[in-house]
């Protein structure tokens, strides 16, 4: 078993809590390996592909952390709920990679590159169905929550592929995409943990709201890092989304500017940025643009809003970890 709070995807400062979470994450990992098995060896191979490639297991960890606020933190239901959210997340990655035509995922060859689009899509469907089977073990209300979450997740994926409608604010459209694709499942992770861990309904509602906001804000902070980060510090190539024409928070805020001085930036953003010189020019203009600080301020405000929902959560290491994560979201892009 991995030891130390540094191995966790959430900032847990209490050693005893970190040890419990790591132990339960091991149980989740073993359970996940069983859940992706099929009667067909080939299906097991494809369904295990991304899970074995690694990942932070942020969503199941949030389930386990939220469960600590109740009196049933170590229950089988909590482990099952943690598996539900991770299988749902993994399934969405198979579909995402097909849509994005991504070559790699978590350092491994993407499933559609290895086996083709049909197999990748059907593998995602298989994982969604496995998560549904597990949800049924948690009761009818959990099935309803999962169905609503799945609806929002898929709606977000679909909306990502279409342009905003006539008269629709492009930024509002994008924020709806992020809320559906990212915020919804993180909110459900916190909700499941609180519910099946035995927390009060007041705490469950607070953590659901927290997860919705902080989950989306974390994605938006990635948008800022795509523009502002140094590749040496972040390990990512700056401007990847910009080069691929993916709308992000600072880009959309810059596009909304009516300042005549932004004419050149708008011209670049409206064109292809596959040329290295044009890409570098657009990246430089964005880094100097007020939209970057505007985007940072928006993320900081969202992270602070998320923390406000934790007021009803009892003081202690769980609340401290949740607050610390919101702080990381607020500061990682500044």
From TrEMBL:
PANTHER family with a match to the protein in the record: ALL TRANS-POLYPRENYL-DIPHOSPHATE SYNTHASE PDSS1 (PTHR12001:SF69), GERANYLGERANYL PYROPHOSPHATE SYNTHASE (PTHR12001)
Documented EC number(s): 2.5.1.-
Superkingdom per UniProt: Bacteria
Cofactor: Mg(2+)
This protein's UniProt keywords: Magnesium, Metal-binding, Transferase
Alphabetized GO MF terms: transferase activity
Family per record: Belongs to the FPP/GGPP synthase family.
Name of protein: Polyprenyl synthetase family protein
Cited InterPro entries: Isoprenoid_synthase_dom_sf, Polyprenyl_synt, Polyprenyl_synt_CS
């Amino acid at each position: 078993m991995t030891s130390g709070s540094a191995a966790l995807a959430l900032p847990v400062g209490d050693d005893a809590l970190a040890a419990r979470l790591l132990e339960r994450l091991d149980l989740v990992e073993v359970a996940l390996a069983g859940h992706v098995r099929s009667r067909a060896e080939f299906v097991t191979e494809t369904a295990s592909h991304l899970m074995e490639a690694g990942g932070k297991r942020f969503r199941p960890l949030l389930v386990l952390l939220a469960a600590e606020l109740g009196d049933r933190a170590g229950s089988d239901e909590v482990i099952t709920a943690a598996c539900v959210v991770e299988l749902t997340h993994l399934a969405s990655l198979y579909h995402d990679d097909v849509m994005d035509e991504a070559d790699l995922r978590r350092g491994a060859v993407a499933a559609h590159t290895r086996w083709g689009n049909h197999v990748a899509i059907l593998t995602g469907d298989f994982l969604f169905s496995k998560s549904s089977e597990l949800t049924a073990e948690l009761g009818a209300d959990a099935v309803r929550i999962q169905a609503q979450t799945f609806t929002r997740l898929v709606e977000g994926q679909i909306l990502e592929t279409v342009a905003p409608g006539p008269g629709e604010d492009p930024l509002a459209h994008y924020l709806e995409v992020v809320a559906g694709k990212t915020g919804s499942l993180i909110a459900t992770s916190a909700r499941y943990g609180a519910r099946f861990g035995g927390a009060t309904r007041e705490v469950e509602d607070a953590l659901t709201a927290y997860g919705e906001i902080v989950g989306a804000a974390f994605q938006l902070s990635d948008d800022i890092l795509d523009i502002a980060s140094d590749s040496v510090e972040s390990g990512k190539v700056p401007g990847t989304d910009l080069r691929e024409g993916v709308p992000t928070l600072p880009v959309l805020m810059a596009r909304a500017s009516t300042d005549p001085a932004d004419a050149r930036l708008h011209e670049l953003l409206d064109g292809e940025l596959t040329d290295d010189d044009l890409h570098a020019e657009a990246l430089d203009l964005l880094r100097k643009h007020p939209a970057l600080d505007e985007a940072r301020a928006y993320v900081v405000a969202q992270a602070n809003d998320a923390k406000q929902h934790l007021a009803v959560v009892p003081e202690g290491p769980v609340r401290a970890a949740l607050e610390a994560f919101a702080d990381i979201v607020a500061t990682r892009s500044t």
